[in-house]
Amino acid sequence: MNQDVFVSIEHLRGQVTDLSYGMLAAARQVAAEAGGEVVAVLLGHTGQHLAQGLAADRVLSIDHPALADFTSEAYIQAWSYLLREYNPRLALFGDTSIGADVAGGLSIRMGLPLVSACQVLLVENGELLFRSQICGGKIMAQGKLPPTTALVTMVPGGYRAEEARGEEPSEIISLEAPPLEDLSVRLKEYIEPEISDVDITKENVLVAVGRGIQNQDGIELVQELAEAIGGVVCASRPVIDQGWLPITRLVGKSGGQVKPVVYLALGISGAPEHVEGIVNSQVIIAVNTDLAAPIFNVAKYGLTCDLFDLVPILVDKIRLSRSIQV
Amino acid sequence: MKIVVLIKMVPDLVEELSISPSGIELDTTWLRLKINEFDDHAIEQAILLKEQYGGEVTVLAPEMEGVDDALFTAAAKGADRLIQLSGKFDNSWNNHALARAFLPLAQELQPDLVLTGVQAHNDLDGSLGPLVAALMGLPYVGYVAGVTVSDGVATIRKEYPAGLLAEMEVILPAVLGIQAAEQPPRYVAFSKVRQSMKTTTLDERPAGESDPQGGVTVEHMFQPETGEGATMLEGDLTQVTDKLVSILHELDVI
Amino acid sequence: MPIRETFWNIPQWAEIGQYILGLLSLLILIYGVVQRIRRWRQGQPENRSDQLLVRLKSLWVEGVLQARVTSDIYAGVMHLTIFWGMVVLFLGTVVATVDWDVTHLFFGFQFLTGGIYVIYELVLDIFGILLLVGLGMALYRRYIVRPGRLQNMPAGRLAWDDAYVLTMLVLITISGYLIEGLRIAVIRPDWAAWSPVGSAIASAFLALGDPTSRSLHLSLWTAHGLLSFMFIASVPYTKLFHLISTPVNIFFQSTKPVGALVPVRYSSGPGVQEWKNFTWKQILDFEACTRCGRCHDACSALGSCGLLSPRDLMIKLDQHVWERQNGKSLHGDVLSPEEIWACTTCRACSQVCPAYIDHVTTLVDLRRHLVDEGEMDGLLQEALTNLGRYGNSFGQSERMRARWTAGLEPAIKDIRKEPAEYLWFVGDYASYHAGMRDITRKTAEVFQKAGIDFGILYEAERNSGNDVRRVGEEGLFEMLVEKNLAVLDRCDYQSVVTTDPHSYNTLKNEYSTNGNGRHPVLHYGELLDRLLTAGQLKLSRKLDYTATYHDPCYLGRYNGVYDAPRRVISATGCKLVEMPRHGDRALCCGAGGGRIWMEEGPVLERSSEARIHEAVGQDGVQVLVTACPKDVAMYTDAVKTTGFADRLMVKELVELVHEAL
Q: pLDDT per residue over C365-396, tens digit each?
């Protein structure tokens, strides 16, 4: 077993996910201390260009039609081959719809230990430690990673994607695919959400609403604020579930990973599933009447006033300020 | 069609959690357990499939506090058989151990579909579904929100972020990790649950010894520090909104 | 010598024909009534034969004197004149029949002679005029004024039924007068003046001469006869059936407190799935309805969301039972879940109903079925799940229930461990709702200042179950009662005092059947009233607010407590002004019956906002006083959304007392 850290590069519809960059950043820190290399693993089909911009020492690329789109079985088989061949210290996967489908199967098939929900990897006294966030973000569990090849699924929040973007990998190695036949899982098609809508992941200013908005009228109030401020309205899961905003506006684990300059969170409690989507924001401003709401742990500025009292006044002041500028 | 649903109980987050004096696990004094929310969806999905295609639904659960209620509620919704793994499910039981304990029963039942929640908030060694699937040698797809079956093939919808869905075909038998049932878990009247407690039998099978190989050992469990975060803006509405406007100015937003 | 010449100008064949037709119409009447009774009996059994004297008294006051009908003065005059007009005229005919075909035929004498006879004629004429006045009022109101509540939605063809009744009454009355007039015109008796109307008509006819008058008289007499027999025979098949069903319904009203619902009859499934699951009394309710629409006007849900009208509910159910389903499903075709869920159980409908219909029990029974099917919105499902699991609808841990007591000096007694005179049942909203905790602390301070010996159940208290029961989750209600009683029975106390009228209602009326009747239950408003009156609680300040008081549904209409809170308000020095809808006409805030746990649905005008407008509409009112935590929650929101937050303060009764301490 060597000290290399393998990173599963997750990609969907031709785009590498932010979490993949975060994992590369994690791998960089660990590999540096452990004395190994960062190896990005890119499984796909005719997607080699995705290797550009991955901050890894090496990229191992396997190209095969069966890997064109993610399916659990094909990816497990490919990874089994890689782990047997290369025997790395760690293999990092996203704790996502892609990574979580693969890691567990690998753990059993190959008899390797698995730790999930990992936020941060630490090196203490030469030992590798995991620190995972469980129980709705209320509990941190920390321990040593066993001294064999270990599988880790990671959640966003511990590392900034920017740290691992933009560099070029030192080398890209194309590998022959192992046999990938008799697959029981097959992709039929993708179903896109009806997007006649903005892409919140590209917006610079976001005004977010949570359960505290109470009803549809509240959304309209916040739309005014978004317009005044030059931003876009987005939301946490409860608002989407109620149907007050389309799913394209969802921020969080199942939604968009946003990176605005300003994220104004109104009436949002700050549950981990939501916070996962906003950790890359520059400045988070949170408004919540509950001083103990977890959102205040990730926000830069906080207010405890009632958002319904605050927003109308804020809208007026912003409009005034804008008209003075002009 | 034979469906097996695997459920487990997880800490109820409504209660305040605290760490036991040992520092490596949760304090169980005030700990209450409730059914894993995603397992509840798995039960609902199983019942929906039974209503559509006919067949039998068996629910398996480890003997944890409050599991009786969860099982009898499942029976009141339409589950046909309830099997409880009896034993002491202490800290030595992780998902790997649970998966191994479920295995002989699940195999005996020879299901066409095994459903379980895609994850549980107290998972630390991965979620249950992929582990059981690998043990059974069956394919696994997780984050499933929608299942139809025809001719031994399940067509499922897999959730990706930002509302993207992938429609996939899975050859049965298979294990699915349910993110959301096609409709929210139905309400069952209290009287119906009470009724099912009287009329449904709860089978018991011994769980055996726990084999947690494949998991990790927690050496330090703690609660994240709160309140180190935000700078609170104080004052009345006028002062506070003025401060906000100047912050937005500084950031070049307005 | 004045005497009644019955059958003057009437040939033998007509006389006989009349009796045959009379018998026939009577048989049809009996047949129709029997059919109706048989249909009632297809419903489930229910015991309503207790307390006969109370029932008879109510029948007298409400059926004969028609007290509730007269609460609307116009309608009262209208109905009483029609009612007594018809009764007297009908009795007049009966008396005349006895006079001619019994005493005269069998015993050879008539008693309708002389002074008796002329008084008889006068009375009949006068009541005939009253009848016509009443009919005129009815026609005017129904066809000129056209108030919304008489519009018979959804079954438009019932308008023909209404028209039929009024037309028949008018025709019968007028034909009766015409006949009298014609007879007088021909006979010209000396005592004609005792029939003033008849005489007046007679003069008009005199131009026509004798033979024309006679044949016209016979035709009119025949027509009058036919109309009357048709009228009688049609009683079981038209709105006229209320002549029988309404008094019977009044007689069979419930003698139990209105705040005590009847437990589920599991034998016919929980709740009502099809019409035969209703009890015979509920089916009778539908048939006793005269579609007067007062419930429609009083209903807060109707004004709020437009989905439910108690009147329409009765019309639809009556029709459904009448056509014996006709292939329609009760849930789905006849009634929608939205309409069944829209009710706040405030009882404004039953309170005004002159026929003593109990709309709320019917709705709760329908809800029991919906709950059994799991047919409810997501928010209600969440609330019920939380209630089942944590014993409160907020989804917060039981351990948080008594957090509001933190920091209170001296600490409140734990009545599980020590005896106390008063067991203070705090309630969910007062304990868990962020906006209420302060008020609950003030309540504790007021109790302490008054020196009363009280304790609370701390974490052992559970939701009392009042609204859970009204939502139709009877199983959950039973569980909550069990849990609460298990704790209550272990405690040592004399009386229960509650913050919330909802807990008050169920603890007082529904828990007692489970063995807790030995302990009187008070609402804190009643307790404060007693303490102030006895001088045990002294107020040092005089507040000079002009205040108006909102009667909570479960305190006022349900339990008749109207005066005690008002005395408390006056004792604090406030000037009390009444809103138009006060006392038993108070407009529900919209939170009851589990509505506060449900999704809002379409909004026409929120009743809480309508109430704010009503309060503000009273000159000089500065404070709206409530005596229920849910009222406080609803009105605090409404005063903001209506923009009156700087004009009107919403205060709980205890806050006034606390301020005046």
A: 999 999 999 999 989 999 999 999 999 999 99
**Is B11 in the A-facing interface, judged by CB distances under 8 Å?**
yes
Task: Collect all residues of chain C within an 8 Å Cβ-Cβ radius of residue A289.
Answer: 434
With CB atoms and an 8 Å threshold, state whether C399 touches B30.
yes
pLDDT digit string, tens, across residues C308-338: 999 999 999 999 998 877 788 899 899 999 9
Contacts of A142 in chain B (CB under 8 A): 218-222
Give yes or no for C399 touching B (CB within 8 A): yes
Average pLDDT over residues C183-210: 78
pLDDT-above-90 percentage for chain B = 82
- Does C302 reside within a domain? yes
CATH class of A200-325: alpha beta
DSSP characters for C39-66? Answer: HHTTSB-----S-HHHHHHHIIIIIIS-
A170, pLDDT greater than 70: yes
Which CATH number fits the domain that encloses residue B133?
Answer: 3.40.50.620
Facing residue for C600 by CB, picked from A215, A289, A308: A215
CA nearest neighbour of C302 among C604, C561, C650: C604
pTM score: 0.90
pLDDT in tens, C388-417: 999 999 999 999 999 999 989 899 999 999
* Domain termination residue (choose one: C231, C249, C267): C249
**pLDDT at A86 (0 to 100):** 94
Q: With an 8 Å Cβ cutoff, is A13 touching chain B?
A: yes
What one-character-per-residue DSSP string does chain B give?
-EEEEE--EEE-TTSPP-B-TTSSSB--SS--EEE-HHHHHHHHHHHHHHHHH--EEEEEEE--TTHHHHHHHHHHHT--EEEEEES---TT--HHHHHHHHHHHHHHH--SEEEEES--TT-SS--HHHHHHHHHT--EEEEEEEEEEETTEEEEEEE-GGG-EEEEEEESSEEEEES--SSPPPP--HHHHHHHHHH--EEEEE--S---TTS---SEEEPPP-SSSPEEP-S-HHHHHHHHHHHHHHTT--
CA-closest candidate to residue C449, choices C609, C661, C641: C661
- CB-based contact, B248 to chain A, within 8 Å: yes
Contacts of C476 in chain B (CB under 8 A): 189-190
Question: Taking a contact as any Cβ pair under 8 Å apart, which residues of chain B between 47 and 106 contact chain A?
Answer: 96, 99
Of residues A21, A9, A102, the one with CA closest to residue A60: A9
Residue A324 has pLDDT above 80, yes or no: no
Interface of B with A in 126-165 (CB under 8 A): 126-127, 129-131, 133-135, 139-143, 155, 157-165
Mean per-residue pLDDT, C518-526: 93
* Parent domain of C626: 539-660
Candidates A107, A130, A261; nearest CB to B253: A261
Distance CA C431, CA C439 (A): 10
pLDDT tens per residue, range C608-626? 999 999 999 998 999 999 9
Tell me whether residues C397 and B193 touch, CB distance under 8 A: no
Fold of A5-175: Rossmann fold (3.40.50)
Q: Which domain CATH number covers C70?
A: 1.20.950.20
Number of domains within chain C: 4
Chain A residues in contact with B139 (beta carbon < 8 A): 72-73, 184-185
Nearest CA in chain B to C385: B187
- Asked whether the predicted pLDDT for residue C211 surpasses 60, the reply is no
Q: Does A291 touch chain C (CB under 8 A)?
A: no
A23 CB-near residues (< 8 Å, 6+ apart): A7, A8, A92, A93, A94, A154, A159
- Which residues, including other chains, have CB under 8 Å from residue C68's CB and lie 6 or more apart? C62, C352, C353, C354
